Amino acid sequence: MAETPESRVAVYIDFDNIVISRYDQVHGRGAWRKDNVYRLGPGLEGADAELKTKIDAATVDIGAIIDYATSFGTTVLSRAYADWSIGVNASYQGQLMERAVDLTQLFPATKQMKNGADIRLAVDVVEDLFRLPDVTHVVIAAGDSDYIALAQRAKRLGRYVVGVGVAGGTSKSLAAACDEFADYDAMPGVRPAVRAAVAEPDEAPPRSRRASRSADETAPTTKADARRTPAEKAETATGKKASSQLLVRALELMHERDDEDWLHTSELKRQMVRLDPAFNEKAIGYSTFGDFLASRSNIAELDDSNAQLHKVRLRRGEDR
């Protein structure tokens, strides 16, 4: 029996729209312009410590958007549109390179800093849909009502249109024009939008999560470590944590997309590979994917009622 062709996804990000919407969501409507964030140069030159703290608190997780797109199929194209000479946009270089996002440079055409991203993005989407007829899903990360016509045209061309926007910065009409619309804040792995408190000069800065993780990862070896299986010993502390986080994210995405209580393990592995093409259970010491899931029993619950159907689900919070 021939395999069903996998869905192919194209992702388009109006980068300025998402970043500005997130900043205003965290710090109040109009905060982006009030703080003159768009005037900062490379390396956030000209920003004081307080402004840098506010920018960090409103950082957008581009990986969360790309990961969400993979829940629909294989991502074959991802583009972000912005004026990359702006310091805040340039600060996302690491995130964007890590996820292989193509960058489209748009210099502002007016004194109001409008760069015409909506027109360029819309033209590219329509051109790509004719040029790449195998694209089945179009993900548009933007909340601007200017994209309503684009969403409607893509649907008429037979594509499944998914919108992504930031709460408070999204047009309801755009959400209605899409086949599906996702709130950025509700995506797995996204930090809640909380306004950052700026520390006083004589106040010691709070211990960072990075420092907390480092302390956890360097904890002394316990007697339990001596009873670990060869597969568990093959995993480094970093690799073990990364694979567990990958498993959680894949399960969360699949449960969000599917109303079924139990998921097929084969679909779960396919989703994990979409999220991280480098994932391979054999590389970390497990002969089968089932063995890997069994080692994560605190995260994944396996259904043993049917030996022929291998199913799994995310263990409920109270049981983890």
Explain the overall architecture:
There is one protein chain. This protein is of the alpha/beta class. It has 2 domains: 8-186, Rossmann fold; 212-319, 2-Layer Sandwich (Nucleotidyltransferase, domain 5), CATH 3.30.420.610. The protein has helices spanning 15-27, 31-34, 49-57, 62-70, 87-90, 93-98, 117-131, 148-156, 172-177, 209-217, 223-226, 230-234, 237-257, 265-275, 289-295, and strands spanning 8-14, 74-82, 102-105, 137-141, 160-165, 180-183, 263-264, 300-303, 311-314. Strands 3-2-1-4-5-6 form a 6-stranded parallel β-sheet, sandwiched between helices. A 3-stranded antiparallel β-sheet has the order 7-9-8. Helix 13 (237-257) packs across helix 14.
What is the strand and helix layout of this fold?
Layout: E1 8-14, H1 15-27, H2 31-34, H3 49-57, H4 62-70, E2 74-82, H5 87-90, H6 93-98, E3 102-105, H7 117-131, E4 137-141, H8 148-156, E5 160-165, H9 172-177, E6 180-183, H10 209-217, H11 223-226, H12 230-234, H13 237-257, E7 263-264, H14 265-275, H15 289-295, E8 300-303, E9 311-314
Parallel strand pairs: 1-2, 1-4, 2-3, 4-5, 5-6
Antiparallel strand pairs: 7-9, 8-9
Helix pairs in contact: 13-14
